[in-house]
């Protein structure tokens, strides 16, 4: 590797090298990348003609340390479309610098993906939501970014994308419409929501006062991931679709205060991931890959 990894991240050449190393380990050439959130990796089990590349076999790839995140790339087909799934993502709270959290997105771009589906488990802030709902990301609030930890900080290489990328429209409106139509066809209208996801650094869950603050800022759901990946994807011209499984409702009043646990997040993930998987598969089936 040619760069100072702690400050800048991997160079453009480093990323191409990592991507070509991964592609040597599979017959597949993916067009769609999917990042699986906490407890949501089951989607990988239904990939057809699957080939697995463990993160440990990829030089310079980080390792996953969080329960509910296995560490492997799964290549193959969903609904006849070539995909690569990240079964296990990296979080800032694991101690990785922000650029490293999102580095796999650049690797997936170098492998040829043009569409990214980002999933996560999130806490509901919008009082109309309930546990088990699916929330399409219309927008996000990059709280770490607003406080000086934007994933794009450091020297910019224009081959990745522009120095000052626009973030309006990060979440592709055609994919949002496709998700809504697909959800109606699946009979999911009553669990489908749309809103703004806010990323906090974690790993501590929110206090009541913090949840109230995030809600007042206009966030509908809160989590500890997704935003750096979406920002890097938008920066390098990938169209993005984001979706949250609401695994718990954040307490907005002390009377109703109950403590969220990661075990609860994983349990709801296990129980409700099927709905998310069906929605994503049906969307992929209807996706036009020549559109971008
Ligand atoms: O990877 P995601 O964002 O789905 O994981 C969420 C946020 C924390 O990592 C964890 C909390 O339970 O779940
Ligand atoms: N910050 C945060 N992340 C989550 N991930 C899943 N649930 C939650 C939550 O309630 N808060």
TrEMBL record:
Its EC number is 2.4.2.1. Keywords: Glycosyltransferase, Purine salvage, Transferase. It catalyses: inosine + phosphate = alpha-D-ribose 1-phosphate + hypoxanthine; guanosine + phosphate = alpha-D-ribose 1-phosphate + guanine; 2'-deoxyguanosine + phosphate = 2-deoxy-alpha-D-ribose 1-phosphate + guanine; 2'-deoxyinosine + phosphate = 2-deoxy-alpha-D-ribose 1-phosphate + hypoxanthine. GO terms for cellular component: cytoplasm. Pathway: Purine metabolism; purine nucleoside salvage. It is an enzyme of class 2 (transferase). Residues 32-284 form the Nucleoside phosphorylase domain. One of its GO terms (biological process) is purine ribonucleoside salvage. NCBIfam families: PNPH (TIGR01700), PNPH-PUNA-XAPA (TIGR01697), PRK08202.1 (NF006054). Belongs to the PNP/MTAP phosphorylase family. The purine nucleoside phosphorylases catalyze the phosphorolytic breakdown of the N-glycosidic bond in the beta-(deoxy)ribonucleoside molecules, with the formation of the corresponding free purine bases and pentose-1-phosphate. Homotrimer. This is Purine nucleoside phosphorylase.
């Amino acid at each position: 590797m040619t760069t100072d990894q702690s400050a800048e991240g991997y160079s453009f050449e480093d990323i191409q090298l990592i991507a070509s190393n991964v592609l040597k380990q599979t017959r597949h050439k993916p067009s769609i990348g999917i990042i699986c959130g906490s407890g949501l990796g089951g989607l990988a089990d239904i990939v057809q003609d699957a080939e697995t590349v463990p993160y440990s076999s990829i030089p310079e790839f980080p390792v996953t340390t969080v329960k509910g995140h296995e560490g492997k790339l799964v290549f193959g087909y969903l609904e006849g479309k070539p995909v690569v799934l990240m079964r296990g993502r990296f979080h800032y709270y694991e101690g990785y610098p922000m650029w490293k959290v999102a580095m796999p997105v650049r690797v997936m771009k170098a492998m040829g993906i043009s569409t990214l589906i980002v999933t996560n488990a999130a806490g509901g802030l919008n009082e109309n939501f309930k546990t088990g709902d699916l929330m399409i990301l219309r927008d996000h609030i990059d709280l770490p970014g607003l406080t000086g930890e934007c994933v794009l900080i450091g020297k910019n290489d224009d081959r990745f994308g522009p120095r000052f990328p626009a973030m309006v429209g990060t979440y592709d409106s055609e994919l949002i419409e496709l998700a809504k139509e697909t959800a109606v066809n699946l009979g999911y209208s009553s669990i489908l929501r749309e809103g703004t996801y806010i990323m906090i650094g974690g790993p501590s869950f929110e206090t009541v006062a913090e949840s109230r603050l995030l809600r007042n800022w206009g966030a509908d759901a809160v989590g500890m991931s997704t935003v750096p990946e979406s920002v890097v994807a938008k920066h390098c011209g990938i169209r993005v679709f984001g979706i949250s499984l609401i695994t718990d409702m954040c307490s907005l009043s002390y009377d109703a205060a109950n403590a969220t646990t990661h075990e609860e997040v994983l349990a709801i993930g296990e129980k409700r991931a099927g709905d998310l998987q069906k929605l994503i598969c049906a969307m992929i089936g209807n996706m036009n890959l020549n559109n971008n």
